[in-house]
Amino acid sequence: MRSSSLTTRLIAGAGVWIAAALLAAGVVVSAFLERHAEQGLQQRLAIHLDALVAASETEDGTTGLTLAPELTDPRFERPFSGWYWQVGDGGDPVLRSRSLWDQALAIDPPAAAGHAAWLRLEGPEGQRLRALVRDLTLPDDDRLFRYAVAAEEGVITAEIRPVQRTLTWMLAGLGGGLLIALFIQVRFGLRPLWRMRRALGEVRAGRAERLDADYVKELAPIAAELNALIDHNAAILERARRHLGDLAHGLKTPLSVLRNEASLHGEVAAGLVAQQVGLMTRMVDRHLARARSAGAGRILGARTPVAPVVDTLRRTLLRIHADKPLDFQCSITADAVFAGEREDLEEMLGNLMDNAAKWARARVRVAVAQSDRGLAVTIDDDGPGLPADRRRDALARGTRLDESAPGSGLGLAIVVDLAKLYGGRLTLGDAPEGGLRVALTLPAA
Fold first, then answer.
1. In the 3-class helix/strand/coil scheme, how is the chain assigned residue by residue?
2. Could you tell me the fold of the domain covering 304-442?
């Protein structure tokens, strides 16, 4: 069984066994009923045969045979009713029931006098008969008479058919009831698994930090292992961040010293040192961003509201670019929540909004909308824009399109790396006001 549903596998597997057990029970009970009906028929035939023998009399001084009284069962009086009796003398019938009309039963004699035999015979109209045959001698008579009483085999079927029909409906009802009970039992038994699934969804969505500890005995070790995995993942991320922060501080200080020393010497040496320091700074920023994002993108349960991050970045950029009259217009839906860490969202939006503020003349528009497909972030500026043939280069790592602008040239490349890590993407286009439009798609919580 290859079904992907555990419920289906359990119900289907148990259902097969229930059906097989009920079918076997039906066959066994039906065979028992048939055997019981057959024995009942044999007992009735034996009673009729005894009554026939008891009613038999021979007439004094004659070879005739009479019955006194006649058998009272009316089925022996109705022609071809399926119930027959016959008394023979040397193979020829002497007496027979009216139900035989003018025909006789072809009966082989038993093995010995007084011995009863059960035979299958063919009736007057081709019916299949069950017959009890016995050869007897009557008192004061030396002749051997063959007594036979027969009934149609359909009597057995007619007697047990209503019982079999009732038995079939009872077994079908029992099977249906067992399947319903099995379904309820499986649903009840698997409820802790569905509860664990919902709890994992809460952790992934950021509404919970760990799984509850109250689980059944079989699932408690799994919950404990999952909680340990979540804690281990968080500890690794925190340790990696501390190491990266230490590395950043340890490298930036010597680089600042080199830059300051270069400014005190000749222009040629200063330019060479400044160029190499800038190169090292870009490499440090690139590798720090990639190393940090590689661990952050896989954190379970991270969620960050977008509006506070955008508002904080807007106020910061207004202070940084206070030399130009910038107008930041932000349109963010209230339910916009990023399925990731706040630091990563700040890194991506900060680079994009800062880039737009650098090149904008007076206006930057930020729009964020959330849908079933995720977050759609659009940032437009009214600057000079970017030609279509240079947009691919703008997204490449470390490529600077304008050396006169401050920065390392890694802003868009870092955003591309982070967006890919979260399953999103970054595209460049034309803004309605003539500048550059940056479209960023991210997962929503």
1. CCCCCHHHHHHHHHHHHHHHHHHHHHHHHHHHHHHHHHHHHHHHHHHHHHHHHHHEEECCCCCCEEECCCCCCHHHCCCCCCEEEEEEECCEEEEECHHHCCCCCCCCCCCCCCCEEEEEEECCCCCEEEEEEEEEECCCCCCEEEEEEEEECHHHHHHHHHHHHHHHHHHHHHHHHHHHHHHHHHHHHCHHHHHHHHHHHHHHHCCCCCCCCCCCCCCHHHHHHHHHHHHHHHHHHHHHHHHHHHHHHHHHHHHHHHHHHHCCCCHHHHHHHHHHHHHHHHHHHHHHHHHHHHHHCCCCCCCEEHHHHHHHHHHHHHHHCCCCCCEEEEEECCCCEECCCHHHHHHHHHHHHHHHHHHCCCEEEEEEEEECCEEEEEEEECCCCCCHHHHHHHCCCCCCCCCCCCCCCCHHHHHHHHHHHCCCEEEEEECCCCCEEEEEEECEC
2. Heat Shock Protein 90 (3.30.565)
